[in-house]
Amino acid sequence: MAAEQALTALLWEMESFAATEHVPIIKAREREAFTAAVAQAQPHRMLELGTAIGYSTLLLLLHAAPDAEVTTLELSSERYAQARGYFARTPFAARVHQLQGDASALLDTLTGPYDFVFIDAAKGQYPDYLRKVLPLLTPQATIISDNVLFRGYVQSHRWPPHRYRTLVLRLRQYLREVHQLPRATTQVLPHGDGMAVTRLHDTVACVASLTQATAKCAMEDVAQEIETEIFPAVAWCGTW
Ligand SMILES: C[S@@+](CC[C@H](N)C(=O)[O-])C[C@H]1O[C@@H](n2cnc3c(N)ncnc32)[C@H](O)[C@@H]1O
Q1: Among 64, 144, 156, 222, whose Cα sits 20 to 30 Å from the Cα of 228?
Q2: Cα of 2 to ligand 1 centre, how many Å?
Q3: Does the Cβ of 74 fall within 6 Å of ligand 1?
Q4: What number does the ligand 1 atom closest to the CA of 79 have?
């Protein structure tokens, strides 16, 4: 009980640090759905892209199988060190494998297999992450991706401000690709900034299909597809 209280206190401390230092951790409105998806999957070997200070890493470990481990990737050496400090204050330290560097490059060095992935690093890289993550997964893995609706721009008719255009187009591409994976289901949860939960049933088929898909699709067309095909087809939870 004392250990549980200490962990709860540490999570509060991290929330407060994140608020003060403007560190973007998983939003309060997303946490319940996130932890429910982890608890349902009961993963053993997890992969996280985007550690920040390690808040979501601890949520993953708290709700996964009791023996679960997580490999977590982070670009910033400052965030890597802050997360390391927090992990050292928990009973989970030995089950966290931290890697510092660009997630896309680090993915090329990993062998897996992982049964759960949380994608929360560079939003413009999500299609690239998907291509690199899929071959590392067990046949029935779960992928959660955060911020897929990015401030409402992903589903909007309005063009986003110029600086967000590529990012928004890539997120649309990502949603299109997870939607088109064979023998997989994707739910887009509209809480917070939008979270996509993709449950695979046949990872090998998904890898084959994505390899065949044209990497560079006409991204403007995807905006139209998002409206007419993708959003009506993915399962929505709650109201938009
Ligand atoms: C939204 S934060 C992660 C929050 C964390 N998952 C949580 O909810 O507690 C995104 C993190 O991704 C990191 N990041 C950005 N680009 C990256 C890249 N190319 N490779 C690895 N990490 C990256 C950022 O430094 C930042 O710490």
Answers
A1: 144
A2: 31
A3: yes
A4: 27
